[in-house]
Structure formats: C-alpha cells, structure tokens
Specification:
The chain is α/β, with parallel strands linked by helices. The protein has two domains: 325 residues, Alkaline Phosphatase, subunit A; 77 residues, Arylsulfatase, C-terminal domain (2-Layer Sandwich), CATH 3.30.1120. Helix content is 31%, strand content 15%. It is built from 13 helices and 16 strands. It is globular.
Length: 464
C-alpha cells in the first residue's frame, strides 16, 4: 500500500503529460494590413490576381504547400482592433460594440457611434478558456485592445499592453520586432514542451506597419527591382519579405523541437488592404471584398497538404475551432459565440460547411473611413451592401463577380428585400450600434478628406 501511494504522484504526472501530448499545440500568426493578394501565394486557384506580383514570401509558400488555403477567408472587420477583439472572444465586432479602430471623423451627414475601445475586464477570451483547459498561453506583438494587456485576459506571457507605436521602435536588424517575436515564441514553445504542456501562441505581427523600418538589405533589393514604383509600394514589399522571414523562423523552431506533427499553424491578416485594381474592390475601412477578404492558411495534423477550401470562413470561427482541438466540451463555452468550428473542413480536404448559429455572415461598419457608413451581408453566392446615408442597397453575385463590379439590385429586388431583412434582423438581435443624423451638418462646408481605407468615393461602387 505504501508503494502504491508513493507511486501515485508519478502516475498522475504521467497521466497529465500523456493527456497533454494528445492535444495539439496551436500557433496563430496574424499579419497587419495585408491584402488578400499580398503574398507570393495564390489565394484562389482560378484567380490569377490572387497572387501578388511584387512580393516574395517563400516561407508562406511552403506553409501553403504543407496545409490548406481558404480562398474565401474573411477578417471579422475591415480594421484592426475590432478584428482582434472578435478573434479572442468568438463574437462579431457588431455584437461587441467595437467596429472602428481610428477616432471618429466629424463634419459628416451622420454621426458615428461611440465604440467601447477597451476590452472589458469580465470578457472571457480564448486565452482564458485554453489556459483553464491546461494550455500554456502567450501573446506577442500588437495587442491594441487596452484593458490592461494580454496578461489580464488569459495569457501567461506577453509583450504587454502594446499598440501601433510598438512597430516604430524596432529597426534593422530586427524590423518592427519581427525576429524578436519569433525568438520569444521559439523559447516559449521549448519551455512548454519541456513542461509537457500543450501551448497556444498568438503572434500578432506589427508588420505591415512601419514598412519603412524594413531591413536595409531588403529595402535595397526592392529599390533595385521596383525603382519606378512609389516609395510605399517599395517599403511594403520589403517589410512583407521580412515578415515572411519571421514566419520561417517560427516554422523552423516548430520543426527543430519535433512538434510539426502535433502543432496547428494558422496564418491570416487582421483586415484587407485592397486587392489590386483588377481583383477586389475597396480596401481598409470598408466592407467591400478588398477590406475584409484576407490570406487564410492552416497547416497541422490531418490537414491534407496543398489543399484548398472554398467554403466561406471568418476569423471568429477560430475560437470554437481551437476549443475543439483542445478537447473542450462545447457546452462549457461562453454564451453568444457566433463562429463555428472549421475542424471538419480541415479533416475532410476542405469539403463541407461551417455550422454557425446563423447561416449568414454580417460585416458592420457604421463609420466613415474607406467609405460612408455601411454594412454587408453574405449568404450563399450573394452579397448585399447597405449604405446608411442614402438608404441605398447594392447586390453582387460573388461567384461570378468577385470584384463587385456588376450591381444586380435593380434586377433582383426580391433578393435585395430578403437579404436586407436578414441584415436588419441580425443587427437588431446583437444590439448593434448605428450612425445617427448630424443636426449640425452643413452640406456647404467642405468635408474632411478620407483617412486611410479604400480609394472609392463615398458610397459609390468600386472602380476596378
């Protein structure tokens, strides 16, 4: 009996380690302001423009060859902070009342709603859930959610309550802290593995911010190659390659530690950044495809190499997906989750559908930035955009018109009515915020110029 009790702690330890070994590790990499076609990786097998012609991202090419590409991968929002809070809570920005990152613009016909702009202390995050399930958790890079930083919201290790300013502090040989983040992630993986614990790491890259801080050698390369291009295009290409090098360092660490077969690697962007004149309309700050469709790649156990999935997925699907991988009982997850697990798509070579509480996807941007305040609903092949200044609706068939050039609203009024009713019902159900009439609006007063975002005129169809 004494021998039995003496062996009990060892037996418990072995059981814990064995259980941990059965659960996969998760490394989630989030790029900042990266277009759907902002890689040298095609994001659609039949769309030539889904691959950038000036970018060189060999490590992401390798990741795509080893995993699955989602041609219809969406960020939850067309700007950064709303996407970030959506990713770690599994709910949409509309439901969270955080739909814009930049300060509100004034002097317009409508007044923008006020956002929360700080993650609430009582919000249950993916870090909280995974840590309770026995995972070690880390967040490196851009947080941009205030609320005391990642350490107050489920992460064992982090870089603190950081924002965009963090990008500008780091230059050659560690541009925007890309390589520092990769090294910290590698050390965290090694320590977690030695402890016999599964890990979740979120690498919220500062790139593509502060692109002028790219390594000097990388900048020189693109100055030679793109001498006739504008400076921003040159620096964006350079920081994109530096970011790819950082991704490669993370992948090398996973391989060196012998964790490739037990680790999921996810790569996506926090919002779109346009899609080229001939591919996607709009850009950051608008829910045209160029603002919300992003690179989306997953590699891991059971994922068929070099495979494709054309089912529509959105960033907040990752919350229930990670929980399923971690073996967490769905009945214990927070109420109000809007995403659905994509684990079955990854298992079944991209075939199937995502089971969410609602069939439609809604993107709500009641602000001025890349356009006038507007929302979008996607259902089946159709996408409806509604503009709040003039109560106007546009309808597109994305299967045949990915660039959103051909407005079908006048030809298909029944579809407009059906989608508009579903959009209104969703926004009412989640108690979304809306812009309100500006009692002091003066139509003769010059309006502020647009800040960032797409290049289209307010409320006008995109010019491709």
């Amino acid at each position: 009996m004494r021998i039995l009790f003496a062996a009990w702690p060892l037996w418990m330890l072995l059981t814990t380690v064995g259980s941990a070994a059965e659960r996969p590790n998760i490394v989630f990499m989030l790029a900042d302001d990266q277009a759907w076609n902002g890689l040298s990786v095609a994001m659609h097998p039949e769309v030539a423009g889904s691959k950038g012609d000036i970018f060189h991202t060999p490590n992401l090419e390798k990741l795509a060859a080893q995993g699955m590409r989602f041609s219809s991968g969406y960020a939850p929002a067309s700007v950064c902070s709303p996407t970030r809070i959506s990713l770690i809570t599994g709910r949409s920005p509309a439901a969270l009342h955080w739909t814009k990152a930049a300060p509100p613009e004034t002097g317009h016909k409508l007044v923008e709603p006020r956002n929360i702009r700080s993650i609430p202390a009582n919000e249950t995050t993916l870090g909280d859930i995974l840590r309770q399930a026995g995972y070690t958790t880390a967040h490196y890079g851009k947080w941009h959610l205030s609320g005391g930083g990642p350490g107050k919201h489920g992460f064992d290790e982090s870089d603190g309550d950081t924002g965009n300013e963090n990008a500008y502090q780091f230059q050659d040989p560690n541009p925007v802290d890309i390589f520092g983040m990769a090294d910290r992630a590698a050390a965290f993986m090694e320590n977690s593995s030695r402890a016999g614990k599964p890990f979740y790491i979120q690498l919220s890259w500062n790139a593509l911010h502060a692109s002028e801080n790219a390594n000097r050698a990388t900048l020189a390369k693109y100055e030679r190659q793109l001498g006739g291009e504008n400076r921003k295009r040159i620096t964006t290409a350079a920081i994109t390659e530096d970011l790819d090098t950082g991704v490669g360092r993370v992948m090398e660490a996973i391989e060196r530690l012998g964790l490739t077969g037990t680790t999921y690697v996810i790569y996506m962007a926090d919002n779109g950044a346009g899609g080229g004149k001939k591919v996607l309309a709009g850009g950051k700050g608008g829910v045209w495809e160029g603002g919300i469709r992003v690179p989306f790649i997953v590699r891991g156990p059971g994922v068929k190499p070099n495979s494709w999935c054309h089912t529509r997925v959105v960033g907040y699907d990752l919350f229930p997906t990670c929980c399923e991988w971690a073996g967490i009982d769905p009945g214990t997850l927070p109420k109000g989750l809007e995403g659905g697990s994509i684990a079955s798509l990854l298992k079944n070579a991209g075939r199937g559908e995502v089971q969410r509480p609602r069939e439609e996807l809604v993107f709500h941007f009641p602000h001025y930035q890349g356009d006038t305040p507007h929302s979008a609903i996607l259902l089946g092949d159709l996408k409806l955009l509604h503009f709040y200044e003039d109560n106007r609706d546009l309808l597109f068939d994305l299967t045949n018109d990915l660039g959103e050039r051909d407005d079908l609203a006048a030809q298909r009024p029944d579809d407009v009515k059906r989608l508009r009713e579903r959009l209104d019902r969703y926004l009412a159900d989640v108690k979304a915020q809306f812009p309100t009439p500006n009692p002091n609006f003066d139509p003769d007063q010059p309006m502020e110029p647009r800040k960032r975002g797409g290049k289209n005129k307010p409320g006008k169809p995109a010019k491709n």
